[in-house]
Design goal:
- It is a single chain.
- With about 500 residues, the chain is of the alpha/beta class.
- The protein folds into two domains: about 180 residues, TIM Barrel (Alpha-Beta Barrel), CATH 3.20.20; about 230 residues, Hypothetical protein af1432.
- The chain is about 50% helix and about 10% strand.
- Helix 6 links the parallel strand 6 and strand 7.
- It is elongated, with a radius of gyration of 25 Å.
- It starts with a helix and ends in an 11-residue tail after the last strand.
- The C terminus is likely disordered.
């Protein structure tokens, strides 16, 4: 008996050691592939006359990285443009498009950055001519060719080559008379600065471009008036943060649904709220209760039994986590605008929370989560910020920050919003006012991106009953930001903390 047990243990140890060796070998191979790809990027863009001895491309922790949404005429997310800059620019000729390419291919991953949507990446002349962009798969990527790189025979030949290999191209800085006009037969998209043209000029460009089978994108659309002007001129795709801007409000009555959802957020976030009080609040909203229960069961896939009551859910996840999730979903229920508005809000909330934790706030950054969550409440609800925060149980510091007063909370919110818009210098300056290191912003943003995607996956799973939580094959699933394309396998059902 003892001999048999000893033999069994020996076999188990050998098997475990073999599995560990296989995992280690896989990690080594993955690192080798990443190093090889990074070398390919570097060798493709390096200038032998100037870049000798230049350090390798930066890791994600050394990069400012953000994404800007491109929305369709229904304000659904069509794509994201990736923006990138090195945290501490070195004396090197490596350009920002190479840094973005490195982050998209290696450091972070394209899917994590865009949640499965199209990714627009600006490419420099060297990246284009030396084929560095071919390290990205043709699917899901649009290579944007700025007119400023010089549209000559070399560039046109390179674009033709990329197109024959299945890559989608876009022409940036497009005008009918400008150098980018030569790219029109080769590109699927053109980008036009909405603020640099009259409505008549915008209409002429949109009409001509669409007659050639190309789709025009209005970029720099930061206010609603610019969006409405571009849309009236024939544009159906828009890049900018116009959807985050409040309308000019007249004195009017706010609809009942947003008010009820804001009241729910207020009740959930009252100081010293009890577990029993939260339980009662959730029970009053069947849809919210269902989301909580399904999320718990998704997170607890390894449990021997399912959780069937709100009280069990609260005990499993904890009061703070349930309050946070319920607040997010209540806000999503109040939103009558673009679904990207909620995605942006969730991203801000988590980013503010992470920065608050770095500032050693006594609540671990929970107050700053609510700060970020409420930062677009005026747009979500459709009223002034003064009206929106009136009934919320906010601390004086958070309330003042949301109303634009300068304090530590406002500086954190400014740092996050400027970072998401690609204003790296402004974001760094705002962060420095509260003693945050420049590296804190890209680290928090990257973690918040991953977290926000997990929220989307959990919300998608909650929206579908039973076996529908596993979506095999191609298709889309509903989420906070609209729909997420599913390329293969199953939808990940994790419930992030």
């Amino acid at each position: 008996m003892a001999h048999a047990m000893s033999k069994c243990m020996l076999q188990f140890n050998i098997s475990a050691a073999f599995d560990a060796a296989i995992r280690l070998l896989g990690q080594v191979c993955q690192q080798f592939r990443r190093g090889s790809d990074r070398f390919k990027i570097w060798s493709a863009i390096a200038d032998p006359q100037h870049d000798v001895g230049t350090p390798p491309l930066s890791s994600s922790e050394q990069l400012f990285l953000a994404r800007q949404p491109i929305l369709d005429d229904r304000q659904q997310v069509f794509a994201y443009e990736l923006l990138c800059r090195e945290l501490r620019p070195a004396a090197t000729t490596v350009d920002e498009s190479a840094r973005t390419l490195d982050a998209a291919v290696l450091s972070i991953g394209l899917d994590e950055l865009t949640a499965g949507r199209l990714a627009f990446l600006k490419v420099s002349r060297r990246v284009l001519l030396r084929d560095a962009a071919t390290l990205l798969p043709p699917e899901g990527v649009v290579l944007e060719i700025p007119a400023s790189i010089g549209v000559d025979d070399e560039v046109l030949t390179a674009c033709k080559s990329m197109r024959t290999r299945g890559y989608t191209l876009a022409a940036g800085e497009f005008t009918l008379e400008g150098p980018a006009a030569a790219l029109l037969p080769l590109v699927e998209f053109v980008k036009v600065r909405a603020t640099d043209a009259t409505p008549e000029q915008l209409a002429a460009v949109a009409s001509h471009v669409r007659s050639q089978g190309t789709r025009p994108i209005a970029e720099g659309v930061e206010i609603l008036d610019a969006y409405e002007r571009a849309r009236a001129s024939g544009f159906l795709l828009f890049q900018g943060y116009f959807f985050c801007r409040p309308r000019t409000f007249a004195v009017r009555t706010i609809s009942t649904r947003p008010l009820a959802q804001v009241a729910l957020v207020a009740a959930l976030n009252k100081p010293n709220v009890t577990l029993g009080a939260v339980e009662e609040l959730l029970k009053r909203d069947p849809n919210l209760s269902l989301r909580v229960l399904r999320s718990v069961n998704s997170a607890g896939a390894g449990l021997r039994r399912e959780v069937h009551s709100i009280r069990e859910a609260l005990l499993l996840l904890g009061l703070h986590q349930v309050r946070k999730w319920a607040s997010v979903w209540a806000l999503a229920g109040a939103n009558g605008g673009s679904p990207e508005l909620v995605s942006t809000t969730v991203l801000r909330a988590r980013c503010c929370e992470l920065l608050g934790a770095q500032l050693n706030m006594p609540d671990g950054g929970a107050e700053y989560f609510l700060l970020g969550l409420c930062s677009l409440l005026d747009v979500v609800v459709g009223c002034t910020m003064e009206q929106a925060v009136k009934e919320l149980p906010l601390t004086p510091t958070t309330r003042e920050a949301l109303l634009g007063c300068e304090n530590a909370a406002r500086y954190v919110l400014d740092a996050v919003t400027l970072h998401e818009q690609g204003d790296w210098d402004g974001a760094t300056e705002a962060a420095a006012r509260v003693g945050l290191e420049p590296s804190a912003l890209p680290q928090a943003y990257r973690q918040a991106l991953a977290w926000a995607r997990q929220v989307t996956a959990a919300a998608a799973a909650c929206a579908r009953p039973g076996k529908e939580r596993e979506a095999a094959g191609k298709g889309t699933v509903p989420c906070l930001a609209g729909t997420v394309p599913i390329s293969r396998g199953t939808v990940p059902v994790t419930f992030p903390r």
